[in-house]
Amino acid sequence: MTTELDSITDDKKSSTNLDPDIHKKNPRKIKADVILRPPYRIVQFGEVRTGSTFMHQLLYAIVRIKTSPGERINMYHEGAVPRGNFVFKCHSEKSCPRLVSLVKKKKVSVFISTSDRENIHFPSTIKSRALHIQETINIRACSLCEVDAYKGIFNLTDTEIQRVKDYMATYESIRQCCGLQMSRWERMRLHGCNITEEDRARPDYVQCENLNKTEVELKMASNPGGIKYNGMHPKSNWMKVGDCAEFDRKVVMGSGFSPKKKKFVTSVKECNALKGKGKK
After folding, report:
1. What's the CA gap between 222 and 92, in Å, rounded?
2. Dist. CA 170–CA 113, nearest whole Å
3. What pLDDT digit, counting tens, does each position of 86-109 carry?
4. At CA 40, angle to CA 34 and CA 44, rounded to 5?
């Protein structure tokens, strides 16, 4: 069953230091007159390290409030494509050929995350069908402002927008400050690195030291915005209260995450090396 569209063409302030008005300076190009309706069959195509996981969770949160509580929302693509609601994530065209085939057949709705909308690393068959393109510079400036971009696409009310923002604000704190894919700044802090005022003024700096992790865990466990957390990969991501302390312990003991090797590796303990790597 295809996603029903009214029409479609063929073709928190985040904890960073960027200018929040950058959203006004970089207006989004959203296809007009498109309203998605259930069943939601969504594929999020995301370049690595562009906030693709943030976008994936954001789309899940929206679909969750737009569907009945008992309805399942598939989040992890493996094998056959299910008939019901799904929000799948794909990093490259080669890694998910079935999903690309559905895009070409116009049977799914497409969303993209990228570091540069003028140089998106996906073919035109995918780019031309994107209902929204998320740019890294925008989510670093004001991640929760991204939620507003989906209002028309999903016909969200102001109350629903606020519910999604409540969920995403809590999720983002968990994502950035807890788990083996936490911010590199938090990894450095846990290793005892000297975080300077100059570091704290950097655009990509995440202020996890000001966060009460237990309080955030309890909030996420209580379904912020009335949205139940849908976590994946428990070996590297938060799933329950108490996980933050356990992940902090693992990081201090030398566990980390390599986005290139897709496995856990011994973390680099030299602070200058850590400061010079990554964009997170």
Report:
1. 34
2. 21
3. 999 999 999 899 999 999 999 999
4. 80
